[in-house]
Amino acid sequence: MGDPLSSLCRGEDATRDAGRALGEALEPGALVALEGDLGAGKTVFVRGLAEGLGHDPEAVASPSFVLAVEHPGGRIPLLHVDLYRLAAGAGVDDLGIDEALGRGWVVAVEWGERLPPTLRHAAWRVILGPAAGHGDDARAVTILAPA
How many Å apart are CA 115 and CA 50, to the nearest integer? Predict the structure, then answer.
């Protein structure tokens, strides 16, 4: 995937399908940074991503209060991180991102725009936002390969 992949997702099922497709294509040690406003569908996308990695998508919930949740097993283990509640200026070093990547896990980070620049440049970027003129349940999803 060299060029950005953009799609219109009508509803949660389509957003989850887009996540599953990316999950099926990822290799061990991949970092995925999800960007978008509250309610944009980041957690829904991660449910699909988890499914594509061989996990139960229903076991995935937003880790906004615990910051990071491990999903061992599957085709590739998954670390799901949410930086929304991380205090401004706080480091992400204690969340286990580097360790998980080094062990070959896929790491999905909600609010990925809050990652340090070195990690953001190494990440698949998934940008979710409203799809103007397509109804309230439609999302524009853009996936960019690591720089």
Answer: 21
Calpha distance 107→119 (Å, rounded): 11
What is the DSSP annotation of 23-35? HHH--TT-EEEEE
- Taking only the tens of pLDDT, the chain with its 147 residues reads 467 788 899 989 999 999 999 999 999 999 999 999 998 999 999 999 999 999 999 999 987 777 899 999 999 999 999 998 876 556 677 788 999 999 999 999 999 998 988 899 999 999 999 887 877 788 999 999 998
Q: How far is CA 140 from the centre of its chain?
A: 15
**Which domains occur in the chain, in start order?**
5-85+97-114+136-144 (3.40.50.300)
Q: What is the pTM of this model?
A: 0.91
Q: What angle do the packed helices 12-25 and 42-52 form, to 10 degrees?
A: 40
